[in-house]
Amino acid sequence: MDTIVEGVKKAVLMLVTLDADIYRITLFTLKVSGIATLISLAISLPVAFFIALKDFPGKKILISLANLGMGLPPTVVGLWVCLLLWRSGPLGRLRLIYTPTAIVIAQTVIATPVIMALVTAALQQVDKKLRWHIMALGATPLQMLFLMVREARYSILAAVIAGFGAVISEVGASMMVGGNIAGYTRVLTTAIVLETSKGNFEDALALSFILLLMAYLGTLALTYLQQRRHKDEYGN
Amino acid sequence: MNTVIEGKDINVKSRERVLLDVKRIGLNKGEIFAVIGPNGAGKSTLLRVMALLQVPQRGEIYFKGEKVARKDRVRIRRKMAVVFQEPLFLNATVLENITLGLKIRGVNQRVAMEKAEYWLERFKAEKLSNRWARSLSGGEAQRVSLARAFALEPEVLFLDEPFSNLDVFIRESLIADFFEALKTTGITTLFITHDLEEVLLFANRVMVLMGGKVVQEGTPLELVENPLTDELKRFIQAWERSKAKMLHLL
Fold first, then answer.
1. Is the pLDDT at A236 greater than 50, yes or no?
2. Where is the ABC transmembrane type-1 domain (chain A) (predicted)?
3. Angle at the Cα of B17 (from B12 to B19), degrees rounded to 5?
């Protein structure tokens, strides 16, 4: 119990005193996970739009693969990306292993199926008759994509939060491809693992509270947006 | 010829079942062309094909004599407007919903607002402009839906049973506003309905669709006075009986 209390105190102290290491790690974590989430969204949107709107052979298999990918273990992704990026691997010449880019690549692989599966479901839920309406207004395929995304924006936002949550909380892949190098590839989760292995439970707890705080702020923002929609539509 | 839009040899199938098999349908400039038939006759499918919203398994659409190729579909769609039976809106206000189609078609914001406000007023819906579109009642929504279609100033207007889900009072007043708008604009119109009364009220020409096939085509009067098949006679008799029943109830 004392350890938990001390951990909370230390977390508050670190945040209040603007601990340089903590801010650097936190900002770096937000940066790599944010970039990975945005890349995943950029990949997922056109693919999900195609899957949701077109009928083609193997469509169900593709959706089931994306659904399967939602549970992709980060350590497995870490292993595959390691094999690809290692100096002797097929992409070894790019010298990306143990760099922030390697973490972004691994996290993109983790987040993409999550975001793709949820965005596909969100776009499929847009009423088919509404799609006819949008077409009848004279929309180009790009305008159609934009309007459908606008229509499903709250569900897509939830998909983004889920993808972001999956990568910001993962540790296996970041550790394997990033190497947990201080001041270079250390993220919050790998720092927690390191502090725990060193027996610095208070520091580890403090970092875990910061991670939880970030997750909560994301959820809070989403809730505010959802509530605003309710107010817009029903005026109360 | 002054044919604005024409469909030739249209065939739509779903799992080998023929939903629509129409050799020719053509709308002349300024005419109101009704398509009537019972539920499941293929009327809405025909409308979607003609409005370039659905690609048929076979057949071609011609716009002002020009065959509509795949690459031209968006360009030609921008000369048309569709009012569906169920008025659906984007998650936005009434005004945003009306101006959206205009903005998609390249009309600037100021002009789009002017047109939207003008048509909302014509359909007595100006007070609804800032309301959230999805909070409208059925009658209000259909008023806005018609205003949205007319605001686009289309060359061809497609209507898929726009009055069928409305109660009698709203229906009567909306039909009057709609008819007035049609008269003043002279837009070429394809009108889908299962109500013979609407055909007699609006249409210059009528096509009867049953089981996906054209049973008869002509003026509304020809249709009522000289139905060509027994099935059509029964359809007209059923309509007359229901009207008589309603009159009796009143």
1. no
2. 26-222
3. 40
d(CA A205, CA A7): 5
Q: What is the pLDDT of residues B57-86, one digit of tens each?
A: 999 999 999 999 999 999 999 999 999 988
> Pick from A159, A156, A182, A185: which is nearest to A171 by CA?
A185
Residue A128, CA atoms < 13 Å, CB-side half-sphere = 6
The pair of three-digit structure tokens given for residue B200, joined into one six-digit string: 């007699």
- Do A32 and A99 contact (CB within 8 A), yes or no? no
ipTM computed for the complex? 0.86
Mutate to test the interface with B, among A137, A148, A150, A155 (most CBs of B within 10 A): A137
Which of these, B167, B95, B103, lies nearest to B131 by C-alpha position? B95
Domains delineated in chain B: 1-79+193-250 (3.40.50.300)
- Contact status, residue A233 vs residue B132, Cβ threshold 8 Å: yes
Helix spans in chain B (H): 43-50, 73-77, 94-104, 109-122, 138-151, 168-185, 196-202, 220-225, 230-249
Taking the C-alpha atoms of residue A103 and residue A97, their distance in angstroms, rounded to an integer, is 9
What would the pLDDT profile of A31-60 be if each residue is shown by its tens digit? 999 999 999 999 999 999 999 988 888 889
Does the distance separating the beta carbons of A136 and B91 come in below 8 Å? no
Residue A168 backbone zone (phi > 0: left; psi -120 to 50: alpha; other: beta) = alpha
- The sheet carrying B80-83 orders its strands as B66-67, B58-63, B3-14, B17-28, B213-218, B205-210, B32-36, B188-193, B156-160, B80-83
Residues of A in contact with B132 (CB under 8 A): 232-235
- Contact check, Cβ <8 Å, B90/A143: no
**Domain annotation for chain A: domains and CATH numbers:** 35-182 (1.10.3720.10)
Q: How many CB atoms lie within 10 A of CB A85?
A: 22
Distance, CA of B231 to CA of A81 (rounded, Å) = 69
| CA pair distance A210, A23, nearest whole angstrom | 10
Q: What is the largest CA-CA distance in chain A?
A: 65
